[in-house]
Specification:
This protein is of the alpha+beta class. The protein has 10 helices and 10 strands. The strands form 2 sheets. A 6-stranded mixed sheet has the order 8-1-9-3-6-10. Helix 2 packs antiparallel against helix 3 (162-181), helix 5 (217-224) crosses helix 6 and helix 7 (243-261) packs across helix 10. The longest helix has 20 residues, at 162-181. The radius of gyration is 20 Å and the shape is globular.
């Protein structure tokens, strides 16, 4: 599969969930989400901070896709910019996350935040393959001005269909981000090389479709029709990490989604993602997420 086929066949869905407004020089902490999050900066300057990583600069027109289950911070520098129209996210049934500093400088950083899902033909949950933040800074580019103006218009004066329009504009931005970064080996989309590998494609699909099965390097190598060592090397080259590391990440993301979106007992969640012991699942989940499954569910549902 080439880039044209992949992008043509890929289905991108954006689920806008918040308008983030930072007034002055301040930080807004965002918890881990089971889905990847796209931040689209409408106004202001600042940076996005992930633990243990260099800060990512943000300004008007910046697009940043944060992988699932990555706690991060939106930071406003509090610099004064031209005012934007007053927004009415409540009328669009969107959360409005506001953070104010204690200083008199009230320059704003405003971003619309969207949960992103990807699929390709019958291959669901491609977003689980994103490992690193994907960044596209389009500040000052004419191509970005029209979507920003239209988004601000829809947010300021909601009308019938405004939420659908916001979603469509965010999808347009996501497609643009992927198109620009597809061939950049440091652009966060290295994993898509595996989609173009006829031996890796069925393996990736099998992991995403059946994370609860007792996979092993040997069983996945057999599916690819390769030796264990040859498969492991080829998977590492195509995807950027080992197959069992991918399986672990997919399992934890699915577990987090089930903990939030279902009432399944933790033992049931554990079983569905491939663990036969609740204690082993809890240890793995806490190592990956930072809190126990029970605490994660309680904190996020409260």
């Amino acid at each position: 599969m080439d880039i044209h086929f992949i992008l043509d066949e890929m289905e991108i869905q954006a689920h806008p969930f918040a308008l983030c407004e930072l007034n002055g020089a301040c930080d807004l902490d965002l918890d881990k989400d089971p889905l990847a999050t796209l931040h689209y900066v409408l106004a202001g300057e600042g940076e996005l901070v992930l633990p243990g990583r260099p800060a990512i600069p943000m300004s008007k027109g910046s697009l940043i896709l944060v992988p699932a289950l990555k706690k991060h911070v939106l930071r406003s520098f509090g610099q004064v910019h031209d005012p934007i129209p007053s927004c009415n996210p409540d009328k669009l049934k969107m959360a409005h996350l506001i953070h104010n500093s204690d200083t008199q400088d009230k320059g704003q950083l405003i971003a619309i935040c969207s949960r992103i899902s990807l699929s390709l033909r019958q291959m669901e949950n491609l977003i689980d393959l994103v490992q690193e933040p994907i960044v596209e800074n389009q500040a000052g580019e004419d191509a970005c001005e029209a979507p920003i103006r239209r988004l601000l218009l829809e947010l300021a004066s909601p009308a019938p269909g405004s939420l659908a329009m916001v979603r469509a504009l965010l999808m347009q931005c996501m497609i643009e981000l992927m198109r620009r970064r597809f061939n950049d080996q440091r652009g966060g989309l290295e994993w898509m090389a595996a989609l173009r590998d006829p031996r890796m494609w069925p393996v990736l699909r099998h992991i995403l479709d059946t994370p609860g099965e007792p996979h092993s390097v040997e069983s996945l190598a057999s599916l690819a029709g390769m030796s264990r060592s040859g498969f492991a090397k080829r998977f590492q080259e195509a995807y950027g990490s080992g197959p069992m590391e991918l399986l672990r990440d997919v399992r934890m993301r699915r577990a987090a989604t089930m903990l939030l979106e279902t009432d399944h007992p933790i033992e049931r969640v554990s079983y569905l993602i491939g663990f036969r012991s609740r204690s082993a699942f809890s240890r793995a989940f806490e190592a990956a997420i930072g809190v126990s499954p029970q605490k994660f569910r309680m904190e996020r549902k409260s």
